[in-house]
Amino acid sequence: QVQLVESGGGLVQAGGSLRLSCAASGRTFSNLDMGWFRQAPGKEREFVAAVNWRVDSTSYTDSVKGRFTISRDNAKNTVYLQMNSLKPEDTAVYYCAARVRYTSRYSYWGQGTQVTVSS
After folding, report:
1. Residues in Cβ contact with 109 at an 8 Å cutoff, skipping those fewer than 6 apart
2. The pLDDT value given to residue 27
3. Distance CA 16, CA 55 (A)
4. Cys staple from 110: which of 4, 38, 68, 75, with CB 3.0 to 4.6 Å?
């Protein structure tokens, strides 16, 4: 089992920045691919960014490329999402997720943290 706890959400004006953190416990963190997802009101949950267990590959949804950066600190069992140049359409609940390496499904999810971007 993996426990994930997000933090760092809040209210920010358009153009501002936030950094989300996700602390993991319960399994060897360095064996996990880590991802961030988000769900806006009335919409389905969507992929935002991911970093693999080897920390040699990252991926982003097109709408956040150049603005968001995912990173991880294996010594702290933590993954981060640095969000810059925030837009009102980034408003959503952001979820951290973990996937055991070499598997296809994110099996572990955090409780989510609210990000609200005002115009």
Report:
1. 4, 95, 96, 97, 98
2. 80
3. 27
4. 4
CA distances from 102 to 1, 7, 106 (A): 16, 27, 11
Task: Name the phi and psi angles at 64, rounded to 5.
Answer: -115, -5
Q: Which of 17, 44, 21, 42 is nearest to 117 (CA)?
A: 17
Q: Which residues pair with 70 in a beta bridge?
A: 81
Tokens of 36: 């961030």
Q: What backbone phi and psi angles, to 5 degrees, belong to 30? A: -70, -10
Handedness of CA 48, 62, 46, 90 (dihedral sign): positive
CA distance 35 to 70: 8
- The separation between the first and the last C-alpha atoms of the chain, rounded to the nearest angstrom, is 40
Give dist(CA 28, CA 36) in Å, integer.
19
In the chain, which residues have pLDDT < 50? none
Strand-strand pairing, 92-100 and 108-109: antiparallel
